[in-house]
Queue: 2 jobs
Job 1
Amino acid sequence: MLEFNATLLAQIFHFVVLLIFLRVVAYKPIARLIKQRQDYIASNVAAAEEERAKAEQLRQQYLADLQRARTEAQEIFAQATKAAELQAQEIIAAAKEEANRVKESALADIQREREKAVRELREQVASLSVLVAGKIISQTITPEIQRQLVYDFIKEAGDLPC
């Protein structure tokens, strides 16, 4: 059978003492160190997840702000375009009004110049007529007769189409 040896018993005893010693001295600090490391990793993972969620929220907010800014820019552009078109229409209307005013002024000037030319022409014709009549009649025309002849001639000339 088996022989029972004292060394075997001493080895078992030493092994048990070693296990107790390792449990008291090494296992608890190592277990505590492993637990701290697990907690540290878990907190880092949680913090990273939280930061990722915040980053995603910020990204969504930035995208919304960017979209809002684009919409506002389009509205501003549309308003500026509309204002420019309105201003262009006002400028065109003012230019047309100014052109009409200049045209009417020019027509009035032309009419005045025409009337002046007709008056001068009538006066010249009257003078020439009096001279011609004086030569034909070979008599001296008094200023009253001359004036009457001029008025009669102007009256007749006024009835003529110009």
Job 2
Amino acid sequence: MSGSIFPVFYGIVRRIPAGKVATYGQVARLAGMPRCARTVGYAMAGCQDPAIPCHRVVDRFGGTKACFDTFAPGTQRALLEAEGVTFRPDGTVNLEQCLWHPDL
């Protein structure tokens, strides 16, 4: 099942604009699978398509994940900062400012 739902998650993630982020749970809810945030994480971690901005998906606290640090530690944060995403002093994304709110 998880392999067949990955393209749905990827389609949602492609809609996240630069400068915004979504949480794993948010992507799962938008896909109609509200209890599958972990599956979204697996999909993002395993994605090999550079056209899918997986770095724009963070945990529910705004935390980044080491699986996106493909070039060096802090890669996900650097990619997000380059797009204008702001971080709090504790190193998490400022979700109040940067959380994506899709028009549904």
